Amino acid sequence: MQTMLKALRLRQLIHTASRKYESFGIRCPACRVFMYGPGKDAPQPTALGNEECRRRYRDRIGRKLFNRVTEARKKGATRIVIDGVTVWQKGIGFFRPSASPGEMKGPFMGNVRMDIEQLQKLTGRKTRSAQARWFKAHFGVDVPCDQIGPIMTEKTYQDLLAKQCGLYSGPMAQPQTRRPAVRTR
Questions:
Q1: Is residue 178 in a domain?
Q2: Per the domain annotation, does 71 fall within a domain?
Q3: At the top level of its lineage, which domain of life is listed (predicted)?
Q4: Of all helices (H) and strands (E), which one includes residue 135?
Q5: Tens digits of per-residue pLDDT, 27-56?
């Protein structure tokens, strides 16, 4: 991809119109926004400092929650659970809720990702690949994984259980019919 962009820039078919920061990390470079045609490249922006990155992170998480977690960490906490929901865990950081604003419950969203201990207790497996295989074997779904493990929320798990029992009335309520295996010679 970089080779193609470089070739297009050398032929003056594109140029860097602007640069903007997409993430909150200090080490992430500013993304280039290209525009068709010849032109002068936008200058490289100054790097975000540690304080600016911290401020953006606090604003994204929420100042009240961030301060509460900071105080608990100073006292030696390794895991912080509020209203039965894990909001922070040592070595992982904040759990990002993935629910829409309409599903919010109090200051936290109800559709929060399961943490490592919940997944281990549920599946009886320790490694993330084994946990993903467990979901495939029991529910027939391929669960996406990241460095923490399978990305599974409590609500999604409850929906999978309801669908398996025939109680789910959501958009994917009709079970897929099993087709016989076709043998090739």
A1: no
A2: no
A3: Bacteria
A4: helix 128-139
A5: 566 778 888 888 888 888 777 778 887 787
